[in-house]
Specification:
Blueprint (H helix, E strand, L loop, with lengths): L1 H19 L4 H11 L3 H24 L1 H5 L2 H27 L3 H7 L3 H9 L4 H14 L8 H32 L4 H27 L1
Helix pairs in contact: 1-9, 2-3, 2-9, 2-10, 3-7, 3-8, 3-9, 5-10
């Protein structure tokens, strides 16, 4: 039983890192904190995002059959993700140009910011539904006991945490090389905005196609 739990932990840790690599609200925010030289906030954001990922992965495992049987629910995940990315991209750019008290409080927060962004990342659920279903179909994991289930979910959380801390550290190293360039520090905001527009266009063609 222990070896199966350890295998599940290793697999979920690996896929958690791979799944968090594409640019998204959470990892771009971690990059932003690295660029702003705020390592402590980056660690808090990573911890909060790991908690949110644990929650989504638990829901994905628990309600896998129900969710996959409702295509409408899965499609709306993409719409929510696109809107969140657009809003955060605009807020990020506006904060750099005309910071308000509310936006400054949000962007100077670590744990609260990580929780908000983590729970506003609904694409985490379909990702873990797909990964879990695949691993089960290959008989690589067995989640029929509490130990195996929570070892699997712990791997999910630690994978997200490890990646976010790593990208924040790397971003901090990059910004030192470029002497805290304002242009480089604004890149995550513009990238969020661009990805949000792209996701919205994809959602529109998905609904009309």
């Amino acid at each position: 039983m222990f070896m199966q739990a350890f295998t599940g932990f290793c697999l979920s840790f690996f896929f958690s890192i791979v799944g968090s690599l594409p640019p998204g609200t959470v990892n771009l925010s971690s990059v932003q904190l690295g660029l702003d030289n705020k390592p402590q906030l980056a660690w808090r954001l990573a911890a909060a995002a790991a908690i949110a990922e644990y929650f989504y992965a638990y829901l994905a495992v628990t309600f896998e059959g129900f969710i996959t049987s409702s295509p409408l629910v899965v499609k709306n995940f993409h719409l929510v993700a696109a809107l969140v990315m657009l809003v955060l991209g605009i807020l990020n750019i506006r904060t750099r140009n005309k910071p308000s008290a509310l936006s400054q409080r949000f962007y100077n927060s670590g744990f609260r910011r990580g929780l908000v962004l983590g729970f506003l990342n609904p694409l985490a659920m379909p990702f873990w539904i797909g990964i879990t279903a695949y691993l089960k179909s290959q008989h690589w994991i067995n989640l029929d006991s509490s130990l195996r289930l929570h070892a699997y979910l712990l791997g999910v959380s630690l994978g997200v945490f490890t990646l976010l801390v790593t990208v924040a550290y790397m971003a901090n190293r990059v910004i030192r090389l470029f002497n805290k360039s304002h242009v480089i520090a604004s890149i995550p905001g513009y990238l969020m905005l661009g990805l949000g527009i792209y996701a919205l266009i994809r959602y529109f063609f998905m609904m009309t196609g």
